[in-house]
Amino acid sequence: MNIATCRARVRRLSSDELYSLTSCSDVGIVVRQQWVKEVILAFKSPSDTDIIRAWDFVLHLDGAVETRPTAPTGHDFVYPVSFRAPPSLLDEPDQAARVKRLEKFALGSLIYEILSGSKPFSGLSDSEVAGQFSDEKAPDGIFTIDFWPIIYRCWGYEAPENWGALVASRGRRPGDPDSDAGGFFQAAGDHPVRTALQVVGGLSILTAVIALPVLGAVGFTAAGPVAGTAAAAWQASIGLVEAGSFFAWCQSAAMGGAAVQGIIATGVAGAGVAGGATFAERARRLFHRE
To answer: What distance in Å separates the CA atoms of residue 196 and residue 192, rounded to the nearest whole number?
Structure first.
C-alpha cells in the first residue's frame, strides 16, 4: 500500500520554513476560512485521471493557498488514515465516481484540520482512527467549527437529529458576547422555515439606521462573518458564496459597500423573503435528507 500526500502547512511571513497547523493557533478564523475556500476550489478543479490526486498545500497568512507539485500516484495509492474514506462509503461501481468519493472525504478532513488546527481523532492510533470513520463518528468538538455541515457532507455523514442542541451547547457561558447564537440555532433547529423567514425576511421593514446594527448582531462585520454567529452558520451551509447572492448583499452592506444605499428600497422585502426561504430549504435538505 502506497500513501498519497495529503497535507496543508503554513508559511509565516519572511520565512521559508513551513509549519504544521497545530503550531499556528494564533491564525484567525477569517484567514482560515479563506484557506478553506481556496482548498475547496483546488479539489473542484477538473481531473482527467481515474486515480486519486496527491495534495500538498502551502497556506499563506494573507489567505492565499499555493498547491505544490507532488509525485504521481497510482491505483494502489491511498490517503493517510486521517484522510481516508472507510470501505463502507465506497460502493460506487464506477471508478471515476469512486475517486471523487475518496477525494471528497479527504477534503472534509483537510477542512477540519485547517479550521481546528489538528487532524481528525488526533492522538488515536491508525486502526482507531479508521474504526471511528467506519462507525461514522465525528471528533469531539466538531460543532464548534462553523463549516461542520460541509465536513459532514464530505464524509458522507448524516447530521444528528439534535444538531441544533449540539451547536447551541458550544461551551459559551451566559454573558459571553456570542452567547445568544446558541438560542438562534436551537430555534432554527426546531422551526427552520419560520426562523429563517422571521430573521431574514424581517429586513424588509428595517430602515438604514436599524438594518446595519441588525446585520452586526447576527455576525456580519467589515472583516467578514464572525465565528460562532448566525452569519457564519449561514455561510457554512452555503459553502462558496456566489456574487450577487443575498448573503453577498448582506456582507456588502456590513462592509459599507453599495448595498448600504439599497437597504431601504422596497426590493429588499422580496430579497429578504427569498433569502430566508432559500436558507430554510438548504437547511432542510442538508440536515433532514429525504
So the answer is: 6
Q: Which comes out higher in pLDDT, residue 203 or 132?
A: 132
**Which of the residue ranges 10-14, 95-99, 228-232 would you say has the lowest mean pLDDT?**
228-232
On the 0-12 / 13-18 / 19+ scale of CB atoms within 10 A, 282 is: middle
DSSP bridge partners of 10: 19, 59
Q: Is the pLDDT of residue 160 over 80?
A: no
Query: Taking a C-beta distance cutoff of 8 angstroms, is the pair 7, 198 a contact?
Result: no
Contact 231, 184 (CB under 8 A): no
At residue 74, the pLDDT reads: 87
Distance CA 287, CA 209 (A): 35
H helix intervals, the chain: 29-44, 95-116, 126-134, 148-155, 163-168, 180-190, 192-201, 208-217, 230-238, 246-254, 267-287
Which among 111, 89, 120, 134 is positioned nearest to 43, based on CA atoms? 111
What is the three-class DSSP state of 6? strand
Whether 237 shows a pLDDT value over 80: the answer reads no
Which backbone phi and psi does 58 adopt, to 5 degrees?
Answer: -110, 120
The separation between the first and the last C-alpha atoms of the chain, rounded to the nearest angstrom, is 37
Dihedral, CA of residue 143, residue 147, residue 153 and residue 155, to nearest 10: -70
Tell me the whole-structure pTM to 2 decimals. Answer: 0.61
From CA 94, how far away is CA 81, in angstroms rounded? Answer: 23
